[in-house]
Amino acid sequence: MKSTGEVIGIGPDFPTAFGKAQAAAGVSLPESGTVFISVTDTDKAAATQLAAQLHDLGFEILATEGTSQAISRMGTPVKAINKIAEGSPHVVDMIEERHCDLVINTPTGSGARADGYEIRSAAIRHGIPSVTTLTGASAAVRAMAARANGYGEVMSLQELHVR
Asked: Is 126 domain-assigned?
């Protein structure tokens, strides 16, 4: 039997298990730094909650203008950044300069999808986690919060069953 690359995360709750599964898959969710958020209009309300949670965890928030306005209205500090078509500085510049540690981007529409592709490609090139759904972003933020509260080390199944 050949390995197909599956990983598993085991924990007392979903955020802990998800965080461990991400780590096992080689996705390094950040412990600190800067998060870029750009979401479609229908996702803005939920994104403001994620931004607030990330701010509470100590992250700086960058967002495109529309997303930035929604986040700011809810009282969370945020720095507005250009869309790619608006010129530098934009998120790809921030990724290339290592000033972005997590990307949350839910693109819709042809322009947003093209930008989303450029953003995700830059993130992949630089090993920066990129999330394209609010469900995934929520799971990632919950996992980051669980880790901040100390969810323990990642271990193999063999190590787990020795205990």
From this structure: yes
